[in-house]
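[Automated response] Your request has been received and processed.

Submitted sequence:
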Amino acid sequence: MTNKFAFKDEFAQLNGLAHTGKNFILDRGLPLFFYREYVKSLHRYIHCIKLGGTTWSLLDNVDFMLKLDFANNCQIPICLGGTLFEIAYAQGAYRSLLDFLCSHHIPYIEIASNFTVAKTKVPSAINQAIYEGLTVIVEIGHKDLQLDLHSSIPTKIEEVKQAFDSGAAYVIVEAGSKFPDHSIYSTHTIDNLRFVDHLANEFGLEKIIFKTPDVDSQIKLVNQVGSSVNIGNIDFDDLFSLETIRRRIHADTYGKKCEYQF
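Generated structure:
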């Protein structure tokens, strides 16, 4: 009997480029039904799901627990966003946040210093989270485009170093969603690659996560850095597309040699 899926299987085998890049998904507040179906379909491509911003707080308790359970059943860790950390810290509720994460077995915490928290407070916040057994992700850079453009490479590198020295497991390189010119997506390609070179030489890229505001930035990132780059703030809708981009079976990455090699 003819195998109706022979071509599909052969195509997947020929083009199934192996990569080690981790996908950090951003749930912007999906209704439970859609969230569940996405997790069921895509779980093998997901390293972590961030319940973004403070959207999770708008869920009723049952739906919130079900979101945690669906991810846990697929062995996907959950993280609550850096905005939550900053607001909780500013309100003197960081201790309560840590207790909440631990009591709900949420293993990751994102620590940011974009709008309420001074960067000098970050090492102490990291230490407190690690003491509680949490895996820490630290966000560096600025959501504000002008601040980001005026933040020098040495300044950013020092922030990354401080985060890792304090025990962070990953560092996220910020890329604001409102403007196209953030971080390594700016029009200054030489500066972009210089920043990546500094990160790779100082720390390696296995523990660096690059945010991608849209599919165009995902394409640019893979073409610049390679298929094994860690990518964050991925919408569920974009994950299959991103995997074709990584595997170079996408029109904008097929046959392209990346500008930087791991």
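Summary generated for your ticket: The longest strand covers residues 135-140. The mean pLDDT is 88.
If you did not submit this request, please reply to this message.
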